[in-house]
């Protein structure tokens, strides 16, 4: 009996020592530092909250960094920063061909970016001034022009809910800037614009260090009246992010 009790005591002591030497196992799917690669796309823009420019497209390729600030059993709160080394913005362009029939024959063409959506059309015009009749016809067709830029959103936060689960609801918000090689969304606006976004999505954890996040955001671009005009672009931006870290 004493031998049995001694063996039990030795096993208990060994188990206690092993438990002290082995780090505790956590089921939380959470990282202290997170890095990510992302692609985001919006097929159209429309007046939602602040912007008025229509029919703009966005295609962004980005990288991100997040740092965990606080975590509880319900939510994981992170500082989040995103950089967009390649930002592509597409504006509708009206290509107009004018054919003069009076007093002289001739053809004139011009391209311009409308603030509203581009709509093809045609028509004629005639006016008599000083005994002379001026007449022409026009044909409008729609094309697109892509503009290259880069952006940075150094101010941002992200909240992951239920960090013990592999599938986590996510809410995020960011603020920053976008610089493009030409004024957007038209020539009266600016090349330097401010940006902000907020949205929600889900993050699926493949392992303790790797995950994929899909989210949908309200995304706004405007120059805050630092240019002669400030149409602003409101977009619904869908983003996929591959994230990793420890």
Automatic annotation (TrEMBL):
InterPro entries: Lipid-A_deacylase-rel, OMP/PagP_B-barrel. One of its GO terms (molecular function) is hydrolase activity. It holds the Pfam family PagL. The keyword Hydrolase applies. Residues 1-21 form the signal peptide. Keywords: Hydrolase, Signal. This is Acyloxyacyl hydrolase. It comes from Acidicapsa dinghuensis.
């Amino acid at each position: 009996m004493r031998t049995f009790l001694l063996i039990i005591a030795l096993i208990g002591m060994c188990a206690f020592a092993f438990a002290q030497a082995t780090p505790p196992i956590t089921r939380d799917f959470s990282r202290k530092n997170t890095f990510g690669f992302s692609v985001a796309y919006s097929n159209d823009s429309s007046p939602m909250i602040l912007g008025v420019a229509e029919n703009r497209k966005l295609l962004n390729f980005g990288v991100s960094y997040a740092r965990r600030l606080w975590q509880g059993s319900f939510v994981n709160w992170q500082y989040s920063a995103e950089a967009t080394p390649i930002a592509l913005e597409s504006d509708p362009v009206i290509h107009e061909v004018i054919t003069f029939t009076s007093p002289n024959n001739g053809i004139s063409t011009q391209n311009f970016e409308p603030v509203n959506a581009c709509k093809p059309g045609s028509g004629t015009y005639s006016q008599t001034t000083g005994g002379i009749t001026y007449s022409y016809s026009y044909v409008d067709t729609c094309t697109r022009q892509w503009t290259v830029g880069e952006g940075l959103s150094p101010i941002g936060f992200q909240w992951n809910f239920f960090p013990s689960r592999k599938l986590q609801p996510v809410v995020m918000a960011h603020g920053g800037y976008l610089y493009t090689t030409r004024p957007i969304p038209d020539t009266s606006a600016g090349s330097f614009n401010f940006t902000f976004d907020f949205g929600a999505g889900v993050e699926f954890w493949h392992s303790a260090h790797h995950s994929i996040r899909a989210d949908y955001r309200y995304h706004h671009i405007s120059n805050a009246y630092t240019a002669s005009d400030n149409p602003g672009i409101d977009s619904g931006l869908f983003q996929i992010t591959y994230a990793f870290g420890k």
